[in-house]
Amino acid sequence: MATQPPTYYNFNSRNTNIEEKIDMQKTLDDWLPITSSRNAKWWYSAFHNVTAMVGAGVLSLPYAMGPGVTVLILSWIITLYTLWQMVEMHEMVPGRRFDRYHELGQYAFGEKLGLYIVVPQQLVVEIGVNIVYMITGGKSLQKFHKTVCSSSCKHIKLTFFIMIFASVHFVLSHLPTFNSITLVSLAAAIMSLSYSTIAWGASIHNGVIEDVQYGYKSKSKAGTTFNFLSALGDVAFAYAGHNVVMEIQATIPSTPDKPSKAPMWKGVIVAYIVVAFCYFPVALIGYWIFGNSVEDDIFFSLHKPNWLIAMANMFVVIHVIGSYQVYAMPVFDMIETLMVKKFNFQPSTMLRFVVRNTLHNLATMGSESPTNPNSISEGNRTVYPMSPPEERQMVVLYFSQRNCYGWCRCPQPSIRHGKSWMGSGCGYPDTVMGNNFVYAVANG
């Protein structure tokens, strides 16, 4: 009597040979949202990077400018450099692509340890950012309602506006692949540039307020220190795109002659030019106009002209809809992979429907929690202290493989040269902690 063949998606079966596991993995990759479509163009990466990075955090930058602009400029430079490193690392091993952030961690630290180090932090940041975006979307809808209706409409609680915002994602969350949200991401990127322009343009139109104050808000050293750290969190939140870089690059086709890093880097450059046009005018002009009295969402400091403020808030809503999807897609991919490989579910539309609705419901419940952050700035301080900056984590993973894509060429490891590696940015993780500290300080 013939033996029964192993379950096709039973990755844990001991009877499954290497060839069958490879076939299983290929079939799974053809179904998962990150790897099932690899026909993206370079401008797709530009849309996704702008959508992922600009975010609603740009609206809190004037609130963060009290401690100075140095950190904002350093963060722009350093995050661009670390983003370039990640683009290079995507295919640093010949014949292999690191399509997901945790795959890079597994290569550096091993199959299990890499997951334990990377996945919890990545999930905290991505789910936390989505909760903040859901609250931001609800608050912007509420502001739009108040601006349009003024005193003629009854007050509606923020909870209901969050539910309205969340309802959109019960549809968009079922788009199958990362490439399928490209138009959503494009619309979000355009909206980010639009509402950023409105933010600084309306600020200039408003004029410098009377008795504007630019000094320290707090009279005590402790208060000043905490305000400074809060500002670092605001800036770190504004440069929050590194978590999805690997997944974005995974959608771009790659061959030995034409690796994906070339079009990806072109998209990153375009994205960072857009980021600069969004961030610096809003941060500098917003703080110049309002000083220390600026709200942590600059649109709450602006009240006229009504039609322009209403339009800007609707632009914010459209943008955070796109940002939510960009950050949610890697989480969907991760959980769907877990359900198939660990629990042996068949890849199916029903599995995708259940997983994504469940995750979105949990995020919605998180945004409705009494302990949720009530502002963008509070969200920054909630999400980022719970997870070290992505750049620091990436640098550790990067140098643990003794590679150097920076301004130096790394020698072979030697205790004698440890100090020189730390100064030049090369070596093992324990020799680059000085550099990691610089990255950490610059990114909150």
TrEMBL record:
Gene Ontology BP annotations: amino acid transport; auxin-activated signaling pathway
Keyword Acetylation: no
Ranges where the Amino acid transporter transmembrane domain occurs: 39-359
Entry superkingdom: Eukaryota
Signal peptide: none
Record key words, sorted: Amino-acid transport, Auxin signaling pathway, Cell membrane, Membrane, Symport, Transmembrane, Transmembrane helix, Transport
GO cellular component: endomembrane system; plasma membrane
Main location: membrane
Location(s), subcellular: Cell membrane; Endomembrane system
Pfam families membership: Aa_trans
Transmembrane segments annotated in the record for this chain: 68-87, 113-135, 156-175, 181-202, 268-290, 310-332
UniProt GO MF annotations: symporter activity
Its membrane topology: Multi-pass membrane protein
Role of this protein: Carrier protein involved in proton-driven auxin influx. Mediates the formation of auxin gradient from developing leaves (site of auxin biosynthesis) to tips by contributing to the loading of auxin in vascular tissues and facilitating acropetal (base to tip) auxin transport within inner tissues of the root apex, and basipetal (tip to base) auxin transport within outer tissues of the root apex. May be involved in lateral roots and nodules formation.
Family: Belongs to the amino acid/polyamine transporter 2 family. Amino acid/auxin permease (AAAP) (TC 2.A.18.1) subfamily.
Name listed for the protein in its UniProt record: Amino acid transporter transmembrane domain-containing protein
Organism: Arachis hypogaea (Peanut)
